[in-house]
Amino acid sequence: MRQSTNPAHVSLAVVLQIRSGALQALLWQRGREPFLGAWSLPGGYLEAGETLEQSIQRHLAAKVDVREVAHLEQLETLSDPNRHPREWQIANAYLGLVPTGVDPELPEDTDWHPVSRLPELAFDHGEITLAGRERLRAKLSYTNIAFALAPPEFTISELRDLYAAALGHDVSATNLQRVLLRRGVIESTGERRAPGRGGGRPAAVFRFRSGWLEVTDEFAVLRPPSTK
Amino acid sequence: MRQSTNPAHVSLAVVLQIRSGALQALLWQRGREPFLGAWSLPGGYLEAGETLEQSIQRHLAAKVDVREVAHLEQLETLSDPNRHPREWQIANAYLGLVPTGVDPELPEDTDWHPVSRLPELAFDHGEITLAGRERLRAKLSYTNIAFALAPPEFTISELRDLYAAALGHDVSATNLQRVLLRRGVIESTGERRAPGRGGGRPAAVFRFRSGWLEVTDEFAVLRPPSTK
DNA sequence: AGAGTTTTCGACTGAGAGGCTAAAACCTGT
DNA sequence: ACAGGTTTTAGCCTCTCAGTCGAAAACTCT
């Protein structure tokens, strides 16, 4: 085992998208040892002069069109000296989100996998992926992070299915609409969508009001006293 | 400017404690260039064979008794290549909490500073410190993280003052008690504390039920449907 | 004993999430 | 065109829980 005095540095990303009604992660099959052939998270070494954000975007660009990654945030840093069998390597994991609908061209070695049925992943990538899912689920409660999973325009039913897939449990369309409207997270476009075959009332079309992450402030408990 | 092909790696910690009714951070005065004499966060280089957690604990041990740091968690990773004027350096910031009451021996160059009136800090340490405070404030809402700021036993009034200092606004003792009891975060010891001079009803003594971080689960909105 | 202090308890209020039902609006097949 | 089926939408109700207020409790000091 090579044990240099300086760790190598890699960036990784858990890239999630709702595909076919399921939360899926972008994985690629390793082309070299160790873990040759095993599925793993996209990423790679840090280069001189770049930030970690730039690094992970550069590595992701080799797999997907990075313009389609609508949100990217730091997830956690892994530093166990034995996490890589041959090299002292520190990994900075990011969480990336791709909106439903876009279907990026992928290289041969890359594909989507449902997070609920992951294959065996290389290194500690399995835990990292689950940590990414948990981060997403938590933030769905108190931020507008779903903007990065949803298409530009959508009906409440589509959004309900999206939330249900990400959260892993049913969501009520009625309640979802009320909560998100009350918080000012989504707004109506004024348009309606024609019903599919089989009929049904035409659904109103909505959009997210913001294209970046915002935290619902009124969310905290133990608030400051009302200033009367 | 030295621009090696591999970044150096340091760990830093924002160590917070409520002292004299104010949220304060542990800082030390740099003894070498750059930023000679400027206040900065404790930390230092990563050594071969250790994790980042071990590294920051080792560096903290040079400043305080690390057994007194009741909670330590990853905060963020700073990777701007220009954040250090001479070296390519990646910094992993941690958030550490010390309970009220303990008063560790400190070296000559080290002291506590109120976060609301920080001096000019070296590098990007000012922003990191404020990020630590925001993390603490957020987590006070939906976790039991206050266990790491509070002494083993306390009255509700003492806990109210502690929350008020950390949050930066008044907190109602009545409400605080109800919320924390209902969530099962604190429990009564059955004892009461003798009133000080001036009188007053003796206060009931409480303790936190858990000594590690726990998340209030019922906190999420868009919960799973009730299973009837 | 009375005045002053601090803690504690109970009741009230209001906001907001979750649930249910009925109505609205559309399609398809006869 | 009408009946029956489907999906969306709106209204109403309930329940939980945070926040507020006031009064009672329990103690000290003079």
In short:
2 copies of one chain form a homodimer. Chain A is α+β, with helices and mostly antiparallel strands.
| Unreliable residue stretches of chain A | none
Beta-strand residue percentage of chain A: 25-35%
Chains forming the largest contact: A-B, 43 and 44 residues
Radius of gyration of chain A: 20 Å
Major sheet attributes of chain A: 7 strands, mixed
Mean pLDDT of chain A: 93
Number of DSSP E strands of chain A: 10
Please report the number of helical segments of chain A: 4
Characterization of this structure:
The first copy, chain A, has 228 residues and is of the alpha+beta class. Chain A has 2 domains: 8-140, Nucleoside Triphosphate Pyrophosphohydrolase, CATH 3.90.79.10; 143-218, Arc Repressor Mutant, subunit A, CATH 1.10.10.10. Chain A is 22% helix and 28% strand. Chain A has 4 helices and 10 strands. Chain A has helices spanning 52-61, 125-142, 156-167, 173-182, and strands at 8-19, 22-29, 39-40, 43-45, 71-78, 89-97, 110-114, 154-155, 186-193, 203-208. In chain A, the strands form 2 sheets. In chain A, strands 1, 2, 3, 4, 5, 6 and 7 form a 7-stranded mixed sheet that branches. Chain A has a 3-stranded antiparallel sheet with strand order 8-10-9. In chain A, helix 3 (156-167) crosses helix 4 (173-182). Chain A starts with 7 loop residues before the first strand and ends in a 20-residue tail after the last strand. In chain A, 34% of the residues are buried. The interface between A and B is large, with 43 and 44 residues. Chain A binds a DNA duplex (30 and 30 nucleotides) through helix 4.
